[in-house]
Design brief:
The complex is a heterotrimer of chains A (about 170), B (about 750) and C (about 220). By secondary structure, chain B is α+β, with helices and mostly antiparallel strands. Chain B contains 21 helices and 21 strands. The radius of gyration of chain B is 34 Å and the shape is elongated. Chain C has about 220 residues and is an alpha/beta fold. Chain C has one domain: P-loop containing nucleotide triphosphate hydrolases (Rossmann fold), CATH 3.40.50.300. Chain A: This is PadR family transcriptional regulator.
């Protein structure tokens, strides 16, 4: 999971201090693994270097913890690209997907599109597997079926989430 | 408490538990109507039976008993005559002294010159003065109902004198003989018996069929209840309660219908037979049996419907899936019926109505029950042999092969009625055609016979001759002769002008004797036989003189004179007839004078019991005309009712079937099966059993009629009313078309594809 | 690739319910298209409109550039019988007829003699591996067998388009897989286009492309 993209996404709602970003991240996504401050600042430094964020002024008595960051246009484009790029269909990617959906909702983008894009990617993978299955032997069939069933589970989650987007939106954007 | 709750669930389901509420309600209504009508008819029959029993009791109670007894007797002489084809009975009474028995319905014996009449006769007197003139005396009272068979009976008691010394009257010490059913006319018994069968059998069949309507839906329902946790026993109770609702409603409806129809029933008359409205009440044991019959029948058929079914939570399975109808006993029933209709050949009985009637009724009943019982079996056999054909035909036939039971059960009801109706109609038509034939051939409207007592013979002749409408009147005495040779021999004593009316005579003068045929050749001597009192008695001898000449009958005369083998003028037959034989006059009336006969009767009225007038024309006029009309009404009514019920049943059945088969129908229509093919398959599906039914019914009906005609038709040819049979068949065909047409909207909606939606 | 069947701007309401609110669809010869969507989204109604079974309130359906709803009812019925084939979730076989007679039914309705129709039907049943069920009534065969007979019946006329509405909906996964692979394989061999309505992604995975339906509206899902 890309912490950089996540922090960028969180910044889209407005400039924040580093510690605010950490708190926001932990609150929403870091339930089991809260971010270290070091991780936050090293990531922010990288983003700054790449021109995706800028420093938006600092409080008196400066220090890194007093700095406030804002997202740049390039940063916005980068988040956009990341959100609309499907994750490679693999097992247990709900966490990434969940993050994408919440971020899309937070930033006012279409979470529906995120899900739909992912769905198509999944379905395409399933189609490929199905074709292999039709042309292959029983071993192929069994292997493909294993993958197909897992992908199907993802897809079910995608569909369920799609059906619950409104509910989720009211929770993440009170 | 639990069984009661099960019943409550069943009641709830029957009233509104159906997936298609209208079909459920329709089924309930149909069951109620079916059971209601049969209950009403059975109650009516029971009531009529009790009315007839009362009637029989009353007629038996007024019958003169031949038991000897002490004390004063009353002398009784009964005279019967006719008005408009109806019989008028006048009983002349003369007591020996005080304490003489009084017949029921009279307060006291009428004095000579007094007339006590039945209310119906009193009404007739008021309406027809000419009728009143036929009877001398003053009307002093009316006969009360306990002395009459029915309200329409034309009956009178007249006081008389001179009866005591007349051999025509018998002394009576008691009135009342044991009551017996055999007093009823065979026509009444036959109508009642066959009518009950014809009306009730199809209704019973419908009750049985109605429980099968929407069967699949019912099964689905029961299995859903099973899923909800009902035990097998509970299912049985619930199904019973469901059936009972219709039956109880039907029984109530039947009771109501009976109460409403009772006044009409009381007016029913078959021939001269009428009943008192107050008597039209079924005896209570019979009423209880009838009222229980509907519910018991419905329960029975519901249980039978569950037989072989295992209601499981996830559906209904048939324990023995394709129930092959074991049919051997079905043709047996029909065969037994046919044998019963050949009683003289099979059971060695005679051909007398009294003897064969039980056989005929039982046989007809067996046949009319047996044929519908045979129908489902027959349909199944036939349909199994059908193959191929157009897709529509194939669909219909396959459907029938899968379940021919239900439609043919409905049709079976129609078959029973049609067969019965065709049989009765044919018998009735043959009988009335025969009666008509006899009428025109035999009855001479311009001829009357007057029987008088010997002392007033001359007076009577003078009175008759004085009537303007009388062309000729002469003494006319037919006397039986005892002869060694086979064949009847009779002596006719009459003056020359009378003889010349019937015979070609060489020449005639008083004192001449003629022979007709060779039975009684000149020179032979014979004993005369007279019927006075109880039986034949020997009278004086008569010798045919050696100089008797031959005479021949005028052609075209087959009246009583055709039996005469020897003709004698009064001068040649002195001393004949012997004492006790009533002198007879023959009267030729003016054929153009319609009232001549009434005038003769009026002229003889002062003679009272001493003269009685009869006319062949009156006797031959079929007084059963009313009866035939009533029967025809019952036949047409019954046939119409049954066809209508059959139509409704078929419709409900088909509606249920369509709703059960919504999905396949919709799928077929979606896949491009034209609706016309589906409609035609429905048509075939209704037509095949119906055509088969009509064919079987017509065959069975004509068969019964032919067998009946053989026994009671006295050789009369069987007359088949083609119009009647044809219109019944046409009615059945129209019915099928109508039902199919009525099903089309249902079919249209079923194929309207909403049915394809998953829910 | 030219479109075989095209629908544009379809609207359809059933009483108060809007089943379709502007749906479009297109399928080319030999293509297999899955129509997906949650229950009540209108996908079955879309199929019924495409097949000329249900007339839409607005919009057109064209088969080989002919307006399907400009045809008479009889012509449309004949079109469905000759050019289209149908497989539904269940209940499409006529219970009274044997499996063979069921399969032969569309041919016989088309006027073919019984013997010829049944010979062809037997062939179709052989292809789907259900020839041994020929004489049995549909009530006595399993769900999967029944669907294969239904498939044989749908394909016996060599239709251009096969409409399949949840064809595996009533089957377990193994039988579902069998029916689907037979369906796809046979359709590919014959070049039959398939409109496959399903809510099951594993069934949809047999398709070339997917059309989503939501709230009566279609969305072409890019074959990413």
């Amino acid at each position: 999971m890309s912490i950089g993209h996540t922090l960028l996404g969180l910044l889209e709602r407005g400039p924040r201090h580093g510690y605010e970003l950490k708190r926001a991240y932990d609150e929403r996504f870091g339930l089991e693994r809260p971010l270290h401050y070091g991780q936050v600042y090293s990531t922010l430094a990288r983003l700054l270097r790449n021109g995706l964020v800028t420093e938006a002024g600092s409080q008196p008595g400066s220090g890194p913890e007093r700095k406030s960051y804002a997202i740049t246009d390039a940063g916005i484009t980068d988040v956009e690209r990341w959100l609309t790029t499907p994750e490679n269909p693999e097992l247990y990617l709900q966490n990434t997907l969940y993050t994408k959906v919440v971020l899309a909702l937070l930033s006012g983008r279409s979470a529906q599109d995120v899900l739909e894009t992912q769905r198509s990617a999944h379905l395409k993978a399933m189609r490929t597997l199905t074709t292999r299955k039709l042309d292959g032997d029983l071993a192929d069939t069994l292997i493909c079926d294993h993958a197909l069933f897992h992908l199907e589970a993802d897809l079910r989650w995608l569909e369920l989430t799609a059906a619950r987007l409104d509910e989720l939106a009211s929770e993440v954007r009170p | 408490m639990k069984p009661l709750q099960d019943l409550a669930v069943g009641v709830r389901l029957a009233v509104g538990g159906s997936r298609t509420p209208r079909a459920g309600l329709l089924r309930l209504t149909l069951t109620a109507i079916g059971i209601g009508l049969s209950t009403a008819v059975l109650l009516g029959v029971a009531a009529l039976l009790s009315a007839l029993a009362d009637r029989t009791d009353r007629t038996a109670a007024r019958e003169a008993s031949d038991q000897p007894g002490g004390g004063a007797a009353v002398h009784v002489h009964t005279d019967r005559s006719y008005v408009d084809g109806e019989q008028i009975t006048v009983t002349y009474l003369e007591p020996e002294g005080p304490g003489a028995p009084v017949p029921p319905g009279l307060a006291a014996l009428p004095e000579p010159g007094e007339l006590v009449v039945s209310p119906a006769l009193a009404t007739r007197f008021a309406e027809q003065p000419a009728l009143r003139e036929r009877f001398a005396g003053e009307v002093t009272g009316t006969v009360s109902p306990e002395g009459l068979a029915g309200p329409a009976e034309l009956w009178a008691y007249a006081g008389a004198n001179g009866l005591r010394s007349s051999p025509d009257a018998s002394p009576v010490h008691h009135f009342g003989v044991p009551s017996s059913w055999s007093d009823l006319s065979p026509l009444v018994l036959f109508t009642a018996g066959l009518g009950v069968v014809v009306l009730v059998v199809p209704l019973l069949v419908f009750v049985a069929a109605s429980s099968r309507i929407a069967g699949a839906e019912r099964e689905a329902r029961l299995s859903a209840i099973r899923l909800a946790g009902a035990g097998a026993g509970q299912i049985r109770r619930i199904a019973s309660a469901e059936a009972l609702v219709g039956a109880v409603a039907g029984t109530a409806l039947g009771g109501l219908l009976f109460v409403l129809a009772r006044p009409l029933l009381a007016q029913l008359r078959v021939g001269d037979t009428t009943v008192y409205p107050a008597d039209v009440v079924p005896s209570w044991p019979l009423a209880v049996v009838v009222l229980l019959l509907g519910p018991v029948l419905a329960l029975g058929s519901a249980w039978l419907g569950l037989r072989g079914l295992v209601v499981e939570p996830l559906g209904v399975t048939r324990r023995t899936r394709p129930v092959r109808r074991r049919g051997w006993w079905r043709p047996l029933l029909v065969l037994l019926g046919v044998l019963m209709l050949l009683p003289d050949l099979v059971f060695g009985t005679g051909k007398r109505p009294g003897e064969v009637l039980p056989f005929l009724l039982l046989g007809a009943a067996l046949l009319l029950v047996g044929v519908p019982v045979l129908m489902p079996w027959l349909t199944e056999r036939l349909v199994d042999r059908l193959h191929g054909g157009s897709p529509a035909w194939q669909l219909a036939i396959r459907r029938l092969q899968l379940d021919s039971g239900t439609p043919s059960r409905v049709v079976a009801g129609v078959v029973a009625v049609l067969a019965g109706v065709v049989a009765m109609q044919t018998i009735v038509t043959s009988a009335s055609a025969e009666a008509g034939r006899r009428d025109t051939e035999r009855a001479d409207r311009a001829l009357a016979t007057v029987e008088v007592t010997a002392p007033v013979a001359g007076d009577a002749l003078a009175r008759v001759r004085a009537v303007p409408g009388v062309e000729q009147a002469d003494p006319w005495q037919l006397i039986d002769l005892d002869t060694d040779q086979a064949g009847p021999a009779m002596l006719l004593v009459a003056p020359c002008p009378a003889l010349e009316r019937g015979f070609r005579l060489p020449a005639c003068a008083d004192g001449d004797v003629f022979t007709v045929g060779g039975q009684t050749p000149p020179g032979s001597t014979h004993r005369t036989i007279s019927y006075v009192g109880d039986g034949p008695a020997e009278g004086p001898r008569f010798t045919v003189p050696g100089d008797a000449r031959a005479a021949t009958l005028h052609t075209g005369h087959d009246r009583t004179e055709s039996y005469a083998t020897v003709l004698a003028t009064p001068g040649a037959a002195r001393g004949l007839p012997g004492p006790g034989v009533r002198p007879t006059l023959r009267v030729w009336l003016d054929p153009g004078d319609a009232h001549a006969l009434d005038e003769v009767r009026a002229a003889l009225a002062p003679l009272g019991w001493r003269a009685s007038v009869s006319s062949e024309a009156e006797l031959a006029a079929p007084s059963e005309d009313d009866g035939l009309a009533v029967m025809r009404g019952i036949l047409y009514g019954g046939a119409g009712l049954t066809l209508l019920l059959a139509a409704v049943s078929l419709l409900v059945l088909a509606a249920g079937q369509i709703s059960e088969r919504r999905r396949p129908l919709a799928a077929m229509s979606a896949a491009g099966v034209p609706r016309s093919v589906l409609a035609r398959s429905l048509l075939w599906q209704n037509t095949v059993p119906m055509v088969l039914g009509v064919l079987v019914a017509t065959g069975a009906g004509l068969g019964v009629a032919a067998l009946f005609a053989r026994i009671i038709g006295e050789g009369a040819p069987m007359v088949v009313n083609g119009v009647f049979v044809g219109s019944l068949a046409a009615g059945a065909v129209l019915l099928v078309l109508g039902v199919t047409a009525a099903m089309l909207p249902g079919l249209r909606s079923a194929t309207r594809l909403e049915a394809l939606r998953a829910e | 690739m030219t479109a075989l069947l095209t629908a544009t701007g379809l609207h359809k309401t059933f009483g108060p319910t809007d089943a379709l609110t502007g749906a479009s669809f297109q399928i080319s010869a030999g293509e297999i298209v899955a129509v997906m969507g949650p229950s009540g989204s209108g996908k079955s109604t879309l199929l019924h409109c495409l097949a000329g079974i249900v007339r839409p309130d607005a919009g057109t359906v064209a088969y080989r550039d002919r307006d399907v709803f400009a045809l008479s009812d009889a012509e449309r019925t004949a079109l469905r019988r000759t050019e289209f084939g149908f497989v539904f979730q269940f209940g499409q076989l006529v219970p009274e007829l044997s499996c063979l007679e069921n399969t032969a039914l569309p041919l016989r309705l088309g006027g073919l003699r019984r013997r010829a129709a049944e010979a062809k039907a037997r062939e179709a049943m052989e292809r789907l591996g259900v020839a041994d069920l020929a004489g049995k009534p549909p009530g006595e065969v399993s769900g999967g067998q029944g669907q294969r007979v239904a498939l044989a019946r749908a394909l016996v006329t060599s239709p251009s388009v096969l409409f399949a509405d949840e064809p595996t909906g009533a089957l377990d996964s193994l039988n579902g897989e069998r029916v689907m692979s037979l369906l796809v394989r046979t359709a590919r061999e014959d070049g039959t286009a398939v409109v496959l309505v399903t809510h099951d992604v594993r069934v949809a995975a047999y398709s070339d492309r997917e059309v989503g339906v939501r709230d009566g509206r279609t969305r072409q899902v890019a074959a990413a």
